[in-house]
Automatic annotation (TrEMBL):
Key words of the record: Kinase, Phosphoprotein, Transferase, Two-component regulatory system
Alphabetized InterPro entries for the sequence: HATPase_C_sf (IPR036890), HATPase_dom (IPR003594), His_kinase_dom (IPR005467), HisK_dim/P_dom (IPR003661), HisK_dim/P_sf (IPR036097), PAS (IPR000014), PAS-assoc_C (IPR000700), PAS-like_dom_sf (IPR035965)
Taxonomy of the source species: Bacteria, Pseudomonadati, Pseudomonadota, Betaproteobacteria, Burkholderiales
Gene3D superfamilies: 1.10.287.130, Histidine kinase-like ATPase, C-terminal domain (3.30.565.10), PAS domain (3.30.450.20)
UniProt name for this protein: histidine kinase
Species of provenance: Duganella lactea
Length: 378
């Protein structure tokens, strides 16, 4: 009998020690643990991390409980129909902090079955996704920057070969064959960048040579329509544009998205913005994005396409200084140029120039361009 009491005492002490360790773990865990009753749909347990991270306690977490248990009715119904897959659930959503701001989270929960075989309790954890998403964003940013740094010299080679092809009609076949080998090697390296370095939208900005695949007038209309959700006064004017141009549509859409975003952020709400598309005087196609704001300081114009550069008018305006840099990088990949100038009456004009595809599979450089397709100042 004495041995039995000693064994029970030892088991009780072990249980109490384990409970203390478990509570200590919950108190210092970064995850928010919770438990709720399926019948009343009320929280019966909420770990201390909820107060540290979201400002809620068990007594003040009514609104939090509603978001945590938002999918519970559907899951209980699925369980009643014999669907065992709804027992465990993992979803991403946003939860409101006690002060009102939203926090991206991952909610993982499991239904616990009672003695009668029906779900009685749901237990789960909440994970704050801010750090994870910030890390992912930094990784994507690094991949994009690395991709751009490789693209710059490749674009220089690409532009030089295109110009040699354009001006070298008198070259013999052996020389022209070498041009094609260089072009093939450049295309292969650009394809590797797309496959291994470009994250998300940048992954679609490939340089694969392909037939014309987008209507330039429609490209401008689509960009304007999207931007009108933020600025109603956006007009589109086109003249003499071809039915199709050869480009990477996702890349060019991103260019106009960033140029329009820039124009909207740096002008008043009542300032109109114009999109213009036409044949360029020197050959090729030009797209203009014009606003009628205060313009850019003349001393800063040469730097607007630099990585992370933000002008003196950027105080109080959200941004990273990468939009125009990315625009130039994308246009470079297409063998074109992008420039900025202040117009005489008022405002700023950004000009994208793209070479004309005179032959299938060709994307020719400008006659007055240097090897990287920029204007030759000499």
């Amino acid at each position: 009998m004495g041995q039995t009491i000693a064994e029970l005492q030892a088991a009780l002490e072990t249980s109490q020690a384990n409970e203390a360790r478990y509570r200590l773990l919950l108190e210092h865990s970064g995850e928010i643990s919770w438990m709720a009753d399926c019948a009343t749909r009320r929280l019966t347990w909420l770990s201390p991390a909820a107060e540290r991270q979201f400002g809620y306690t068990l007594d003040t977490a009514h609104s939090l409980a509603q978001r945590l248990l938002a999918d519970l009715p559907a899951r209980l119904a699925s369980q009643a129909d014999g669907d065992a897959s709804s027992r465990h659930a993992l979803r991403e959503t946003e939860l409101a902090h006690a002060d009102g701001h939203l926090v991206p989270v991952e909610i993982e929960s499991t239904l616990i079955v009672g003695a009668d075989g029906a779900p009685a309790t749901v237990v789960g954890v909440v994970r704050d996704l801010r750090a994870r998403r910030e890390l992912a964003a930094q990784q994507k940013k690094f991949a994009s920057m690395l991709s751009h740094e490789f693209r710059t010299p490749l674009s220089t080679i690409d532009g030089a070969v295109q110009r040699l092809e354009m001006t070298g009609a008198h070259h013999d076949e052996a020389t022209r064959k070498r041009y094609r080998k260089i072009q093939t090697a450049v295309d292969r390296m650009l394809a590797m960048l797309d496959e291994y370095l470009s994250p998300e939208r940048m992954a679609s900005l490939g340089r694969e040579r392909q037939p014309n695949e987008i209507n330039p007038a429609q490209l401008l209309e689509t960009a304007a329509e999207q931007a009108r959700q933020r600025r109603k006064q956006i007009s589109v004017h086109t003249q003499g544009l071809p039915q199709g141009i050869r480009c990477e549509p996702a890349g060019m859409r991103l260019c106009f998205e960033m140029l329009l975003d820039n124009a909207i952020k740096y002008t008043q709400d009542n300032i109109p913005i114009e999109l213009v598309g036409k044949i360029a005087a020197e050959g090729g196609i030009e797209f203009l994005v014009r606003d009628h704001g205060d313009g850019i300081a003349e001393t800063e114009l040469p730097r607007v396409f630099e990585k992370s550069f933000r002008g003196s008018n950027a105080v109080g305006v959200a941004g990273s200084g990468l939009g125009l840099y990315m625009t130039r990088s994308i246009v470079d990949v297409h063998g074109g140029t992008v420039t900025a100038r202040n117009v005489s009456e008022s405002g700023t004009e950004f000009r994208i120039w793209l070479p004309v595809a005179t032959d299938a599979g060709k994307n020719l450089a400008r006659l007055d361009a240097s090897s990287d397709n920029s204007l030759d100042a000499s």
